[in-house]
């Protein structure tokens, strides 16, 4: 049995963190579903930026949409929705077979709306309606500015992938925003069956402390963060407040491990996949990491609900001078800024490619 199938058997969903037109048209995504047990997909502006900039796969569609008078952000969302609705259709069988637990794809709202709850909610509702796919998440950052939009989107019945979480504390706050949305739906007599995942970024922790701590601590902080977040997740799921909404028909907001490609060339290319094999979670991984775990990865230990040794590891980093709480805030702030930078670069690619295609006519 491949390690990807083993993960699924042990209760963890394997998702792909990539989307390109070529991935769809070549049949590669279909093969990943059939052969590598892939049951979902995530995307972000950087992925689309690279896909559009580094290929001619989108040129014909861009020309057509330019002739329709579309440009900039409007044109981009047309392209993204074309790709993601195709992907959602490929995962529909999984979605239906799992009663909506799995088989999801994700589309991100513009990070430029991060400080505007109403605008974020309006765009989330618009994109979800335009996609017209039950198995599409709208990604909203779990920053302080994004939390009200998460609650409102859930209350409005829009499935949400809460992104840009870096610590157990940030995860808990985002989970509570989701829960408030569900509780409000129950109080209003609405169905509480609105799905969500909470995406915790892993590898950036280790990149942030490399060279600043003893070598013996290299590549250990991200895993410890994941373990402690998993402990918090399992604790929340067993609390009386969550049990009440489950009894009313709600479903858990699953914890999703993101940014799980290994950055350190000296470390295992499946480091974070093996260490964070945890039931009731999702691991979304880059294409290279997916192929690596399928080719030579092995899954032996399953992460215990108590988080294993995460607190002890935190103590070692504290002794080495790492303020984990301060670093979590810094990583989320930097991540939000990087999202804006990626979005602006993507819009720049759309503008430059549009101009080039128009001049070539």
Q: What helical percentage do the residues reach?
A: 55-70%
* Strand segment count: 8
Mean pLDDT: 96
Distance between the termini: 52 Å
Shape: globular
Q: Classify the secondary structure makeup into a structural class.
A: alpha/beta
Strand content: 5-15%
- CA radius of gyration is 20 Å
Q: Could you describe the largest sheet, including whether it forms a barrel?
A: 8 strands, parallel
Q: Write the element-wise H/E pattern from the N-terminal end onward.
A: HEHHEHHHHEHEHEHEHHHEHEHHH
Biggest sheet, strands in spatial order?
Answer: 2-1-8-7-6-5-4-3
Number of helices: 17
Instruction: Give unreliable regions as ranges.
Output: none
Explain briefly what this protein structure is.
By secondary structure, this protein is of the alpha/beta class.
What report would you give on this structure?
This protein has helices at 3-9, 21-25, 28-35, 45-53, 59-67, 72-90, 92-97, 117-131, 147-155, 168-187, 203-209, 221-237, 240-247, 271-275, 287-296, 310-319, 324-359, and strands at 12-17, 38-42, 105-108, 136-141, 160-165, 196-201, 254-258, 281-285. The chain is an alpha/beta fold and 361 residues long. Strand 7, helix 14 (271-275) and strand 8 (281-285) form a beta-alpha-beta unit. Helix 4 runs parallel beside helix 17, helix 10 runs parallel beside helix 12 and helix 12 (221-237) packs across helix 16. The longest helix is centred in the last third of the chain and has 36 residues, at 324-359. It is globular. The mean pLDDT is 96.
Features:
single chain; 361 residues; alpha/beta; eight-stranded parallel beta sheet; 8 strands; 55% helix; globular
């Amino acid at each position: 049995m491949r390690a990807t199938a083993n993960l699924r058997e042990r209760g963890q969903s394997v998702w792909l963190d990539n989307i390109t037109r070529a991935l769809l048209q070549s049949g590669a995504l279909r093969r990943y579903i059939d052969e590598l047990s892939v049951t979902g997909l995530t995307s972000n502006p950087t992925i689309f930026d690279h896909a559009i900039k580094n290929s001619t796969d989108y040129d014909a569609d861009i020309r057509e949409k330019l002739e329709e008078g579309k440009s900039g952000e409007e044109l981009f969302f047309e392209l993204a929705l074309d790709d993601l609705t195709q992907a959602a259709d490929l995962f529909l069988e999984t979605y239906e077979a799992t009663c909506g637990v799995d088989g999801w794809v994700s589309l991100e709202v513009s990070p430029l709306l991060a400080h505007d709850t109403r605008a974020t909610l309006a765009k989330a509702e618009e994109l979800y309606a335009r996609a017209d796919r039950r198995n599409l998440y709208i990604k909203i950052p779990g920053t302080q500015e994004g939390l009200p939009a998460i609650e409102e989107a859930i209350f409005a019945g829009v499935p949400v992938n809460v992104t840009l979480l870096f610590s157990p504390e940030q995860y808990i706050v985002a989970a509570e925003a989701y829960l408030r949305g569900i509780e409000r739906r129950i109080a209003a007599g609405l169905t509480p069956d609105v799905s969500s995942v909470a995406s915790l970024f892993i590898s950036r922790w280790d990149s942030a402390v490399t060279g600043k701590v003893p070598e013996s601590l290299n590549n250990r902080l991200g895993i410890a963060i994941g373990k402690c977040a998993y402990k918090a997740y399992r604790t929340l799921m067993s609390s009386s407040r969550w049990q009440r909404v489950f009894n009313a028909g709600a479903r858990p907001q699953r914890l999703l491990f993101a940014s799980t490609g290994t950055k350190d060339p000296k470390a295992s290319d499946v480091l974070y996949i093996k260490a964070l094999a945890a039931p009731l979670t999702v691991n979304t991984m880059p294409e290279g990491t997916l192929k690596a775990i399928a080719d030579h990865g092995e899954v032996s230990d399953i992460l215990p609900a108590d988080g294993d040794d995460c607190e002890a590891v935190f103590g070692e980093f504290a002794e080495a001078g790492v303020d984990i709480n301060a670093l979590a805030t810094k990583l989320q702030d930097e991540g939000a800024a990087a999202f804006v930078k990626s979005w602006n670069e993507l819009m720049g690619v759309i503008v430059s490619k549009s101009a080039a295609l128009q001049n070539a006519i």
